[in-house]
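Review form for a predicted model. The reviewer records the input and the model, then writes brief findings.
Reviewer: anonymous (R2)
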Amino acid sequence: MLDLTKIIAHMGLPAKVIAFTLLAMAVGSLAIFFERLYAFSRSRRASRQFAAVARGVLSGAKPEELIDRAAAVKSSHLAQLLGSGMQTFTEMQKTPGSLTPLEATRRALLRKNEALSADVRRGMSFLASVGSVAPFVGLLGTVMGIIDAFAGIAKAGSGGLGAVSAGISEALVVTAFGLMVAIPAVLAYNLLATQADSILRNLEQGRGEFLDFVENRFGKGTATRE
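Model under review:
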């Protein structure tokens, strides 16, 4: 039976450094995975509640109330998006510029949507990097371990399969460790990517519905100038 404690204890310094690097990757991947799951869950729940509130507020034509309600729900990406859009719209109505309130709002929503998209996908690039790099990091540890084993034979001046088998087995453990880190990271990335895409689709839908409502509610005065 494989005694991992004994194998790790007999690893050379380079292999140990690589093994602990993989351990750090694994811990970082787990931290990002659970943090994103929690953030996505909070955002979906808060966004559902805010959407119901926003419909009632908008139907009553109370833009200031929508801004206040959105500011109070910081965990909802939808609230941040609509709050930003309504803030821009009300400001442009009070101080008109070269753009109509609707056009200014449309541009503000696009910028806010890009910022929220980056926030939703925060940390996911690390998972993707771990999933693609960890196997090669493990392979590097294996190669260095094998080199160390053969260097020991060369130094001793003799040896056979029995002399190198222990060193090779220790080296191969690092490759296995790399795969054990990479596979969960890839699965975690795919799961989070699916949930992130769902949130971003909902934001896009909410952005379109909000613009349609503003245009229909406030009429041609908000239309884009030619």
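Findings: The radius of gyration is 28 Å.
Further findings: The chain has one domain: 12-215.
Recommendation: see findings above.
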